[in-house]
Amino acid sequence: MEQPKVKLTYNVLNLLEGVRTTSNDGQKTFFRVVTMALPKRVQTLVQDDIRASNIKLFESDTNRDGVPDSLHVSLTTPLDDGEAIYKASVLVFLNVTVQNRVKLNMDAFAILSHESGLPGASLHADGDLQLRMRNPIRITKSMQTPYETNPLLNVSRVVGAQDLAIDKLIAQYRNRDCLMHLDVPYPVWTSDLGVDSIGSSSRSFHIDLTIRIPPMEILYRPTWSELLKTAWIQYFSILVIVYGIVHAVAGFLFQHRLLQTYSVLDDASILTKQHT
């Protein structure tokens, strides 16, 4: 068990989806709002949907061992009159390092997504970060960076809003052998009590996310020295048991003469006895 060193990269992508109701005729249309903490060049690619918001991110190290125990994300997005939010998704980009037995460094993200049939005013979530591996990691002397050439968020390669689509980012992430999964058992969606008959809503939507980082099980391929160190006693104990069983069975068979046997005499010893 090892607690990975998970650090914030301070890059966040937030997508709010809902319905906008016009006050004059009550017509409803689908809309989305994008808020992000990304470089300005990337923000200009989605400027039609982007909206300024208040984003706060910080790490918490409760036992002061130099490894963050939890990450905290707070986003507050202003809304216009007539806007109601029904779905919220947020991606928090991370940097993960494992270094006790296995040496691995990779980029990752924690994703929170929730939707409701009722318009919401806030989403509160508290979850555990989990390491998931399709295959055991090999042991090397140097730090492994398997995804360094293909990062999840490559700012230099972002040419359009489609490169920031959440479904595309998730599909790219799911192709990896190692990834981090955020388990949120009890998300709390607070309904927007300010919605009236024409769909007018409160002035902001708030997301409060706590990401806990517990010790995790790291699967790796043991070296030959580790195999010999841990396995020899098992093989030895098996040999002792097998030897004891064979010895007991053989003694019982020969003692009770359950098997047909033949005695072979040495001719030289017979002749010696006859001349004596």
From TrEMBL:
InterPro entries xrefs: TMEM231
GO biological process per UniProt: cilium assembly; regulation of protein localization
Keyword Transmembrane attributed: yes
Topology of the protein relative to the lipid bilayer: Multi-pass membrane protein
TM ranges: 232-254
Keywords from the UniProt entry: Cell membrane, Cell projection, Cilium, Glycoprotein, Membrane, Transmembrane, Transmembrane helix
Keyword set includes DNA-binding: no
Coarse class of the protein's main subcellular location: membrane
PANTHER family xref list: CHST5 PROTEIN (PTHR14605), TRANSMEMBRANE PROTEIN 231 (PTHR14605:SF1)
Function text: Transmembrane component of the tectonic-like complex, a complex localized at the transition zone of primary cilia and acting as a barrier that prevents diffusion of transmembrane proteins between the cilia and plasma membranes. Required for ciliogenesis and sonic hedgehog/SHH signaling.
Family: Belongs to the TMEM231 family.
Name of the protein in its database record: Transmembrane protein 231
Organism of this sequence: Pythium oligandrum
Source species taxonomy: Eukaryota, Sar, Stramenopiles, Oomycota, Peronosporomycetes
